[in-house]
Amino acid sequence: MDTQPIIIREIRLQPYCLPFRQPFQTAYGVWRDRRGIVIQIIDDRGRQGLGEAAPLTGFGMETLAEAQTTLEQMRDLFVGIHLSNLKDLWNLLQDYCHTPAAKHGMELALLDLLAQSHLSPLAQYLNFELPPFPTSPSIQEEERKTLNRGIAPTACWKDVPVNATVGAMSLEATERKVLELLGQGYRCLKLKVGLGDFEQDWQRLKAVRAIAGEQIQIRIDANQAWSVEQAIANLTRLESLHLEYVEQPVTATDLAGMARVRHCVDIAIAADESVTSLQQLEQIIALQAADLVVLKPMAMGGILATLQAAHRAFEYGLDVVVTTTLDGAIARQGALHLAASLQFSRRLNRACGLATGNLLESDLCAEFPQPQSGLLLLSETYGLGIEKLRNFP
Ligand SMILES: O=C(O)CCC(=O)c1ccccc1C(=O)O
Ligand SMILES: [Mg+2]
């Protein structure tokens, strides 16, 4: 194994703008495109590491302009630096916590290089306990079946169960979308709610359960839209639909309110916007405000901080779901490697929110993994596994 340190020779920054296929609607409003910055690092041996910084409103992240400024500062400081391991990388970036998207992007490009220099896929590099990819098709088939039921009792990390993401849309459009997604083999659907009248959400969710049947998991995301009283009333009404969980029913900062909702309704509560740092996770634990946490590497300031938070959550008995922030292919691939490495530790056993690539009209690279039967497959390539960038605007 190549244990020589990597030496940063050049850092390139390239802004991008990727339109959504259809405007994506959440309780935050309508998103038409996704903007960010691609980070390309060349090391002394000519290898390329790729990262992506894409801040998003509502998750305590910096603005795009701030991310750009921070990345330019890093570019000027980091050329010539030697890195041998995760600890070096952690130390290099620990002062950049106030610009989580920029930190995420730089970290990911360096993780890509470190994993390549260790001749490992990133998921494996993140967790050296990981065995080589399972190669026997029979084993893979067995594991696939098990994963489709939402449990991962055997040591499989080659593919990750994912949920389909459905924006807030009309009843008819939701029904069409759900049929399409079930046809593609998804076993877990996540619907955005909380936009207008709860009556509309209720009709939509009832229709989705009727179409999907009881075997499909349905999770919903209110993106902070409800008051504590509304959340209790709405979720009580939804109990009969046997939802998997509700994400962020109330304001992110109202952890006591979220704890109250959790104690009043018979549906699992997931903290999302409420957890963008380890400190916030500790508060959620202290107040018993959630049953599980949704972790977004872009909002947490990188893969390593998310890994740390996930282990903390598991330690306290909270489930974890890794999701993207509707990013380009580079950041999605990073989140997928993280989810795979956590899945190997056998603690991550819920579908992750990583199947967001198809919401975008174009992407950062020509080819990226497509979910198959509700699973995202990892490639065996070293590092992040993205070889070729597309020419993007
Ligand atoms: O979880 C998913 O399916 C996709 C990720 C997602 O919904 C999301 C994407 C961008 C910003 C916020 C959120 C969210 O979960 O609230
Ligand atoms: Mg959410």
TrEMBL record:
Q: Which residues bind Mg(2+)?
A: 221, 247, 272
**UniProt pathway annotation:** Quinol/quinone metabolism; 1,4-dihydroxy-2-naphthoate biosynthesis; 1,4-dihydroxy-2-naphthoate from chorismate: step 4/7; Cofactor biosynthesis; phylloquinone biosynthesis
Tell me which UniProt keywords the record has, alphabetically.
Answer: Isomerase, Lyase, Magnesium, Metal-binding
Q: Where is the Mandelate racemase/muconate lactonizing enzyme C-terminal domain?
A: 171-268
Identify the InterPro entries for this entry: Enolase-like_C_sf (IPR036849), Enolase-like_N (IPR029017), Enolase_C-like (IPR029065), Mandel_Rmase/mucon_lact_enz_CS (IPR018110), Mandelate_racemase_C (IPR013342), Mandelate_racemase_N_dom (IPR013341), OSB_synthase_MenC1 (IPR010196)
Q: Which species expresses this protein natively?
A: Tumidithrix elongata BACA0141
Catalysis: reaction(s): (1R,6R)-6-hydroxy-2-succinyl-cyclohexa-2,4-diene-1-carboxylate = 2-succinylbenzoate + H2O
Q: What does this protein do?
A: Converts 2-succinyl-6-hydroxy-2,4-cyclohexadiene-1-carboxylate (SHCHC) to 2-succinylbenzoate (OSB).
**NCBIfam families noted in UniProt:** menC_gam_Gplu
Q: Which family does the record claim for this protein?
A: Belongs to the mandelate racemase/muconate lactonizing enzyme family. MenC type 1 subfamily.
Q: Name the catalytic site residues.
A: 192, 296
What is the name of this protein?
Answer: o-succinylbenzoate synthase
Tell me the name of the encoding gene: menC
